[in-house]
Design brief:
It is built from seven helices and eleven strands. Strand 10 and strand 11 form a beta hairpin. The radius of gyration is 17 Å and the shape is globular.
């Protein structure tokens, strides 16, 4: 059983959320986290569970293709509904495949070379050839990713939010890329923000946010935050 501690917000009775941080091409770690989630659900059934992936499924790690294939196939854990959010690395992939030259350069520089290789694509080949070499189901999955998800007293988003800006007015670019102005904010954001994007040595717990990108991209752990009622715990692989 996970070791629980007090959480900074609350979920409704019967709701449990498993939120997974930045995967970055580490399909074996994602499979291990999913196995832990499935085991926890089997040991502690709950009325309304939900699995949320916070984005950055691709780049840097060895098997971006495997991660996308796993998630694009549907809910990876039988009987557990899943929400998949957009990360800045998926945004770069979308823009690069659309032919934006700056995005092609950005993607190659920040992990896209490893991702392309996982689809058996030469990273130095003509970018115009890339879309046809990536399965259509994989492209559709990436293009359909959501920007945010709200549950109880929590907001789930890849990078964070701009303090003082209503949720409906948040910039999509901030939601997937923000650091300055958010990470150092002690303001009441209205909701506790669950996010990834900024790698740290372990989960970051603040009264207004919880960061769970624990550096899987760099060989460290992949983290899953477990939320239920007014408590929280962590799973790691």
């Amino acid at each position: 059983m996970p070791e629980f501690q007090s959480a900074p917000a609350r979920l409704p009775s019967g709701r449990r959320i498993y939120a997974v941080g930045d995967v970055h091409g580490h399909d074996e770690k994602l499979a291990a986290i999913h196995a832990q989630v499935a085991a926890d659900l089997a040991a502690r059934p709950v009325t309304a569970p939900l699995l949320i992936h916070l984005g950055d499924y691709i780049d840097r790690g060895p098997d971006s293709c495997g991660v996308i294939a796993r998630l694009a196939a549907g809910d990876p854990i039988a009987g557990l509904p899943t929400v998949n959010l957009l990360g800045n690395h998926e945004r770069s992939m979308i823009d690069a495949l659309a032919g934006e030259r700056a995005a092609v350069t950005d993607w190659r520089m920040h992990g896209g070379r490893e991702a392309l290789a996982s689809w058996d694509i030469d990273p130095d080949s003509d970018p115009a050839t890339w879309p046809a070499l990536i399965p259509a189901a994989h492209r559709r999955f990436v293009e359909a990713l959501a920007l945010m998800h709200r549950e109880g007293g929590y907001l789930f988003v890849h990078a964070g939010i701009r303090p003082g800006v209503p949720l409906k007015a948040q910039s999509p670019d901030d939601l997937i890329r923000i650091r300055g102005g958010f990470l150092d904010s002690e303001a009441d954001l209205g909701l506790v923000v669950i996010h990834g994007h900024t790698p740290t040595q372990g989960p970051v717990l603040r009264r207004n946010r919880i960061g769970i990108d624990t550096g899987a991209a760099y060989g460290r752990e992949l983290t899953c935050l477990v939320l239920e009622a007014n408590r929280m715990a962590f799973l790691q692989a």
